[in-house]
């Protein structure tokens, strides 16, 4: 018996609502233990990302090997990767340490419009990482960017979106519905022989910073605890919905109260 251990490989958010910070909060809230490896340092706040600086490939590899030579990992969550060199490092580590239960959130651009993965590195992510991951969790914008399409995310679009991503080497796909125009927020888990829909009502809140990070790290945590893929997605989706419902209890004191912002969930 041991505490389920989840390794998060993602960016550092000084605002505390995304990246390795929200991953760590989520993993611990669900009874796991978080190991965190930083891919990039960002400058960001409630109004968006203003800058990022990637760590060196050597430093990323050293962080990972130092941990993995000491601790067994039950699941891995991958977020922002910044560039092609870091993708190469992560792919090599996943293979050499035979890591399983890998969940990839293919972060391309921040919600404020800051590019978080160099465009030239997108193909590298597809080729090197998609086949190694048990699940990828793109939102609608990321799916359209990856496929070069303009899907709206409707129920009839889902099989076609998934077919395109399967053709890129994805093994299982969670097509997230937060950016669609559907009445409910519907996420679709697409496996090779099935599509499972998970729906929750939309919640009107400014606390939307880090939703994708929270969901993917929650899925990884449930996988680390031995849950199957569909139950892990269902429980993670319900956890996100519950946190969004109670997110207004977090009240930060801002300098300029009149600015529109995206706030942390918890």
Please characterize this protein's 3D structure.
This protein has helices spanning 19-29, 57-68, 84-96, 122-129, 140-147, 158-166, 211-224, 229-245; strands spanning 5-12, 33-45, 48-54, 75-78, 102-104, 135-136, 173-175, 184-191, 194-201. It is α/β, with parallel strands linked by helices and 266 residues long. The chain has a single domain (5-249), classed as 3-Layer(aba) Sandwich (UDP-N-acetylmuramoyl-L-alanine:D-glutamate ligase). Helix 1 (19-29) packs across helix 7 (211-224). It is globular, with a radius of gyration of 17 Å.
Write the topology of this structure:
Layout: E1 5-12, H1 19-29, E2 33-45, E3 48-54, H2 57-68, E4 75-78, H3 84-96, E5 102-104, H4 122-129, E6 135-136, H5 140-147, H6 158-166, E7 173-175, E8 184-191, E9 194-201, H7 211-224, H8 229-245
Parallel strand pairs: 1-2, 1-4, 4-5, 5-6
Antiparallel strand pairs: 2-3, 7-8, 8-9
| CATH homologous superfamily descriptor | Ribokinase
Biggest beta sheet summary: 6 strands, mixed
Number of helices: 8
CATH class: Alpha Beta
The CATH architecture assignment turns out to be 3-Layer(aba) Sandwich
Question: What share of residues are in beta strands?
Answer: 15-25%
Q: Kindly, what is the distance between the CA atoms of the first and last residues, rounded to a whole number of angstroms?
A: 29 Å
Average predicted confidence as pLDDT = 95
- Overall shape: it is globular
Alpha-carbon Rg, integer: 17 Å
Helix content: 25-40%
Unreliable stretches (pLDDT < 50, length at least 5) are none
Helix and strand pattern:
EHEEHEHEHEHHEEEHH
């Amino acid at each position: 018996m041991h505490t389920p251990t989840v390794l998060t490989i993602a960016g550092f958010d000084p605002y505390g609502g995304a990246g390795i910070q929200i991953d760590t909060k989520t993993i611990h809230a669900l009874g796991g233990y978080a190991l965190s490896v930083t891919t990039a340092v960002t400058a960001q706040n409630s109004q968006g990302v203003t800058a990022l600086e990637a760590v060196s490939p050597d430093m990323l590899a050293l962080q990972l090997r130092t941990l993995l030579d000491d601790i067994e990992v039950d699941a891995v969550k991958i977020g922002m990767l910044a560039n092609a060199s870091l993708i190469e490092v992560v792919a090599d580590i996943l293979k050499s340490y035979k890591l399983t239960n890998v969940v990839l959130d293919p972060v391309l651009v921040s919600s404020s419009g800051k590019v978080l993965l160099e465009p030239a590195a997108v193909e590298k992510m597809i080729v090197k990482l998609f086949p190694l991951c048990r699940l990828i969790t793109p939102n609608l914008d990321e799916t359209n960017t990856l496929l070069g399409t303009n899907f709206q995310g409707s129920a009839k679009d889902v099989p076609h979106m998934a077919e395109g991503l399967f053709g890129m080497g994805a093994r299982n796909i969670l097509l997230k519905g937060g950016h669609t125009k559907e009445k409910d927020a519907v996420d679709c888990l697409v496996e090779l022989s099935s599509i499972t829909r998970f729906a929750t009502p939309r919640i009107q809140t400014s606390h939307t910073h880090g939703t994708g990070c929270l969901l993917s790290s929650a899925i990884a945590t449930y996988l680390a605890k031995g849950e199957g893929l569909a139950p892990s997605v269902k429980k993670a989706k319900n956890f996100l919905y519950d946190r969004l419902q109670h997110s207004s209890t977090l009240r930060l004191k801002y300098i300029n109260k009149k600015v529109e912002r995206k706030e942390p969930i918890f």
